[in-house]
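<amino_acid_chain>
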Amino acid sequence: MGNPSWFVPVMLGLMLIGLVWVVTFYITQEQYPVASWGRWNLGAGFAFILAGFAMTTRWR
């Protein structure tokens, strides 16, 4: 039995959102995506990436 049709797009989307989040943080010299979070932006970006990676373990 395979995964639902939404599974792979969500998995890839989470990983891409995390990547864009981290890259945006570095390119804008730590001012975006959320300036008040400071270095916690890295944690948020990696949380998205890890959530997507965790979904890969359930991919069939």
